[in-house]
Write a sequence for this structure.
């Protein structure tokens, strides 16, 4: 079983436990729907690339709303979308790509329209110190340079394809990774010389990896939409969390992680 | 005995158990290691085969040291000129009878065709030509035994080893197979060592018996001498004799503090006295007249024994007596009953315990 | 309540106790229901066209090839290892036996990383292999075979060691008395004796290699035609198209079950 599949199972278990806890303890009786106060658990399904920033934002949200707890479930956006459409009890969905959000809205699981709360751009991740002297996309097609890309089916792969096409660079990667963390790991381990990953991922791995900016990345910007879900067990909490993510403090956290804010 | 093909002193120490068996076997001779379970017979056989290293002593076959710990001499099993018939035969289940027998010659460097020819010849000799292509599981017990024998002999071993070769057979098959085995063992030009706990097998198959008890040789000799003059209870029981050890003075042998048996033979010093259970007479009262050897005993057990009744008696010496059912009925033998025991001196056999 | 017909019916060994029957049934249901889910959700109408997509067939062929090669590699290395564990007393044998099972408990992704640390470009052996022989393993089909072997070998070793321990080692002694060296004994007596266990181990090993995902993607990466095996293709399909993923899974399932059943009939009926 893959690490990601394992994580999915764990996520489902966590979600199931959350629901059970709610039924038994009744600690989130959509508290104070009238007075706007948020209490109880808010379950957030968020794209894996949001792991670091949403963990902080969740803590800040709890601090701003005493009596509330934020349960975060990080995984690939498409896996999360599938889980939501299969009835996973989530309050909020934050996706790394509009396409996965569309899957959810088209299935009729959205409460309102999605809002873009962050943008992410590609950088060229190279081992720290940039031993191959990579300065732009063209360097990646040099002979002997091993490159990892994300598979076309996942957002970072689609973005990479767009950027490479617009730069007119043709290259054959040695691997098409399932997700951006996989591509980054290959750089960290030194198995490839470069990978196209999100700026946020490169920044989070700054101990081992240097992010090289390139102009064509502007052509392939990735929008991160967020929305409250229709069947949210805690609708008040859901709306409050969505609103909080777009607030100034949360946006500052995202910017610090390398996101562009809308 | 000079000209022994096998000359061995098998010393194996394993925890508290110590085996120490000297063994010399001439070409063409069949020696049976006879003894109760746990006596160390199988260990001795495994030591000869190289499946168990000696602690001390030696195994010399045809002048070559196969195992001699003192000089670190060692020839591994697969390079010894031996053939082994295992107790449950251990025929390779995935090979036909023919290929089982051809296995040995093949390993000794004979090519496939010649090996199979040899195997076919041996299967013919043991009367199993028709079963050549059967797998071991399709053979009867007697047939499997013969295949195992053919397999062991097909490499023309200098030393043939058999471990309880007839133990796995039912009584009827055993009789036929024993006779046939005897024929093959007689024809074998090398030395043969046979391990068994069955005196009948040993007597029928071997030229010489070596009785092993508790890891030591307690008696050795040809069949008639061993059966006529047993030297331990085990052998006496095997051949169905009452046996006592005592001090002889003339015609009297003191076998218990208050019992001296009068015997026909005349001798002095440590001696054995043996007599058959049928030679023992039982009387309800003290018999008058000729028998000198009489004493009072207590019935310890009564059971059928062939056509007769065997009575076990306690007293100054334990003794087994065979009486007719009629006599038993007349005496109304029951456990705990006191009777008088009588043995005629002429029915006893006394011989020195030493030498 | 004797039944008259019992005279002719084969004798029964009593009724199957409910305490066994009920959990057995539940266990079977638990294993089969997810399969049924796949079958029910499969897009049967578009199935033929999806099946003939070149990507699917390429991945399937690569999967079968690499799993088979991995099984051969596991047999070549794993059977002698199992023999050592079962037949030779050596210091640290228990530790070695425990080490053999490590890939079973290690998450395969971690296994993949561990392989990179050894056979990768900067790995303990990888750099030397590259410098000396020009061999690089990551991102190659050979790398897939290596990753699958790493994960699948314990299944083979455990099965074969069990069979060796269960086999009567006195047959090997009998072979020695007939003049067979240890090697000949191993090839002519031991291996045939444990053939059923060997076959079972090889089949388990092959099945595990066929389904391998984590170590493969981590060590060998994912590139169509070279390192993208069926499980990787399934996972990628899951990103965009659930139905495609189901179709690919079904194909993998049908092929593997088909091959296992065929082999079982041929090899293991005599066991």
């Amino acid at each position: 079983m893959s690490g990601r599949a394992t994580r999915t199972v764990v996520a489902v278990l966590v979600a199931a436990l959350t629901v059970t806890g709610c039924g038994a303890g009744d600690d989130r009786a959509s508290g104070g729907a009238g007075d706007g106060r948020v209490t109880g658990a808010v379950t957030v399904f968020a794209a894996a690339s949001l792991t670091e920033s949403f963990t902080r934002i969740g803590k800040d949200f709890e601090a701003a709303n005493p009596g509330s707890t934020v349960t975060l479930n990080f995984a690939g956006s498409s896996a999360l979308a599938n889980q939501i459409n299969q009835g996973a009890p989530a309050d909020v969905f934050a996706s790394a790509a509009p396409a996965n959000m569309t899957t959810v809205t088209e299935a009729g699981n959205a409460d309102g329209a999605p809002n873009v709360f962050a943008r992410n751009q590609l950088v060229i991740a190279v081992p720290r110190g940039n031993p191959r002297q990579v300065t732009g996309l063209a360097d990646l097609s040099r002979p002997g340079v091993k490159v990892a890309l994300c598979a076309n089916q996942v957002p970072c792969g689609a973005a990479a394809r767009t950027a490479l096409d617009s730069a007119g660079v043709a290259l054959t990667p040695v691997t098409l990774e399932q997700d951006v963390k996989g591509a980054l790991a290959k750089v960290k381990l030194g198995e490839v010389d470069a990978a196209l990953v999100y700026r946020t991922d490169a920044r989070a791995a700054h101990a081992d990896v240097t992010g090289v900016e390139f102009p064509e990345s502007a052509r392939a910007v990735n929008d991160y939409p967020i929305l409250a879900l229709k069947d949210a067990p805690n609708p008040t909490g859901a709306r409050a969390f969505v609103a909080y993510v777009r607030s100034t403090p949360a946006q500052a956290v995202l910017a610090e992680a390398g996101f562009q804010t809308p | 005995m000079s000209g022994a093909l096998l000359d061995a002193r098998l010393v194996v120490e394993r925890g508290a158990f110590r085996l120490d068996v000297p063994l010399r076997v001439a070409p063409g001779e069949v020696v049976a290691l006879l003894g109760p379970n746990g006596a160390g017979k199988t260990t001795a056989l495994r030591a000869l085969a190289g499946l168990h290293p000696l602690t001390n002593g030696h195994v010399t076959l045809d002048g070559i040291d196969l195992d001699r710990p003192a000089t670190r001499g060692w020839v591994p099993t697969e390079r010894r000129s031996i053939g082994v018939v295992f107790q449950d035969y251990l025929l390779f289940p995935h090979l036909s009878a023919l290929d089982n027998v051809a296995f040995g010659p093949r390993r000794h460097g004979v090519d496939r065709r010649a090996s199979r020819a040899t195997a076919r010849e041996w299967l013919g000799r043991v009367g199993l030509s028709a079963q050549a292509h059967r797998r071991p599981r399709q053979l009867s017990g007697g047939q499997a035994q013969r295949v195992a024998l053919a397999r062991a002999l097909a490499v023309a071993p200098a030393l043939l080893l058999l471990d309880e070769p007839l133990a796995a057979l039912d009584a009827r098959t055993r009789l036929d197979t024993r006779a046939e085995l005897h024929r093959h063992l007689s024809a074998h030009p090398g030395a043969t060592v046979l391990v068994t706990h069955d005196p009948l097998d040993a007597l029928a198959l071997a030229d010489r018996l070596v009785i092993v008890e508790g890891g030591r040789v307690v008696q050795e000799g040809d069949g008639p001498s061993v059966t006529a003059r047993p030297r331990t209870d085990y052998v006496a029981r095997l051949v169905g004799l009452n046996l006592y050890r005592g001090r002889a003075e003339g015609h009297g042998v003191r076998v218990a503090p208050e019992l001296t048996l009068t015997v026909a033979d005349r001798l002095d010093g440590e001696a054995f006295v043996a007599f058959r259970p049928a030679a023992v007479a039982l009387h309800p009262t003290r018999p008058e007249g000729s028998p000198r050897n009489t004493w009072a005993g207590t019935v310890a057990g009564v059971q059928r024994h062939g056509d007769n009744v065997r009575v076990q008696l306690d007293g100054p010496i334990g003794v087994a007596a065979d009486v007719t059912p009629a006599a038993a009925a007349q005496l109304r033998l029951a456990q705990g009953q006191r009777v008088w025991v009588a043995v005629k001196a002429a029915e006893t056999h006394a011989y020195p315990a030493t030498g | 309540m004797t039944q008259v017909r019992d005279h002719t019916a084969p004798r029964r060994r009593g009724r199957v106790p409910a305490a066994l029957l009920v959990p057995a049934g539940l266990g079977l249901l638990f294993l089969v229901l997810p399969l049924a889910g796949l079958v029910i959700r499969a897009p049967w109408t578009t199935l033929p066209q999806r099946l003939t997509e070149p990507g699917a067939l390429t991945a399937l062929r690569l999967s079968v090839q690499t799993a088979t090669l991995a099984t051969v590699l596991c047999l070549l290395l794993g059977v002698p290892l199992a023999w050592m564990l079962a037949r030779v007393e050596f210091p640290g044998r228990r530790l070695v036996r425990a080490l053999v099972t490590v890939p079973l408990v290690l998450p395969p992704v971690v296994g993949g990383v561990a392989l990179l640390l050894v056979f990768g470009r900067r790995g303990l052996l990888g750099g030397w292999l590259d410098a000396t022989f020009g061999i690089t393993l990551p991102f190659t089909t050979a790398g897939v075979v290596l990753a699958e072997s790493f994960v699948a070998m314990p299944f083979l070793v455990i099965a074969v060691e069990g069979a060796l321990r269960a086999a009567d080692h006195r047959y090997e002694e009998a072979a020695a008395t007939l003049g067979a060296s240890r090697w000949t004994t191993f090839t002519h007596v031991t291996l045939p004796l444990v053939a059923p266990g060997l076959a079972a181990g090889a089949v388990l090993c092959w099945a595990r290699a066929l389904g391998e995902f984590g170590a493969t993607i981590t060590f060998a990466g994912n590139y169509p035609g070279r390192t993208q095996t069926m499980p990787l293709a399934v996972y990628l399909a899951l990103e965009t198209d659930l139905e495609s993923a189901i179709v690919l899974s079904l194909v993998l399932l049908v092929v593997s079950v088909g091959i296992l059943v065929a082999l079982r009939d041929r090899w293991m009926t005599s066991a």
